């Protein structure tokens, strides 16, 4: 196996943050090979990440650069490659994309894989980092949640129709029609798209694509033997060709190839992590 002592916890946010924050997570992993490679797939969320450890992420120029102690994984439509070694500790805050801007405004660019953050988050990271190094994740989370609650008190919430549309897209697994949603909310399609893009950084249709894609990866990780034809129908794609085309656009590979990577990891008990992690024994530092 590539790593041992893997510890993952997911927790619900404070009730006052429930409209913006989906969950908190803490993650600790000790890699036992010289490096481990991770494929970060596009997701229908925005993540604020505090990181402690030796990890590097690939930029658009193909070079690996050290991960900063705090960064945002924003809305994106392509995978990213990350390489880590040794002990890694991560504390994450997962936001609904339509509500992240209200809490992170002027603190982060919400598009991209590893975006820089503002002075407020950098100052917070200077307090959170030492706690992560000590393994005091609960104390670190209390600091982060306190910062978010302070932001919440002065934040401008997203427009009601935007949140309602986002929640309906999630509930329908990306299947809700934008035209029908707009009509239910008393808006034209153009009005809904404009409000949604202003709040979330992407259109309702783009979010629906990401939600459907995320569900596809979850299903393939749970059952890599699933029929692609049946899965395409279940997930609301027009046909198998549409499913393959969309999946390839987000990952650079077909769903069949992704399922094959999941199967190759399953005998080692790592199937649930799917094709997101690829073990490497060589030094890949850039």
Automatic annotation (TrEMBL):
<dbReference type="InterPro" id="IPR046532">
    <property type="entry name" value="DUF6597"/>
</dbReference>
<feature type="domain" description="HTH araC/xylS-type">
    <location>
        <begin position="161"/>
        <end position="261"/>
    </location>
</feature>
<keyword id="KW-0805">Transcription regulation</keyword>
<dbReference type="Pfam" id="PF12833">
    <property type="entry name" value="HTH_18"/>
</dbReference>
<feature type="region of interest" description="Disordered">
    <location>
        <begin position="261"/>
        <end position="286"/>
    </location>
</feature>
<dbReference type="GO" id="GO:0003700">
    <property type="term" value="F:DNA-binding transcription factor activity"/>
</dbReference>
<protein>
    <submittedName>
        <fullName>AraC family transcriptional regulator</fullName>
    </submittedName>
</protein>
<feature type="compositionally biased region" description="Basic and acidic residues">
    <location>
        <begin position="270"/>
        <end position="286"/>
    </location>
</feature>
<keyword id="KW-0804">Transcription</keyword>
<dbReference type="InterPro" id="IPR018060">
    <property type="entry name" value="HTH_AraC"/>
</dbReference>
<dbReference type="GO" id="GO:0043565">
    <property type="term" value="F:sequence-specific DNA binding"/>
</dbReference>
<keyword id="KW-0238">DNA-binding</keyword>
<dbReference type="InterPro" id="IPR050204">
    <property type="entry name" value="AraC_XylS_family_regulators"/>
</dbReference>
<dbReference type="Pfam" id="PF20240">
    <property type="entry name" value="DUF6597"/>
</dbReference>
<dbReference type="InterPro" id="IPR009057">
    <property type="entry name" value="Homeodomain-like_sf"/>
</dbReference>
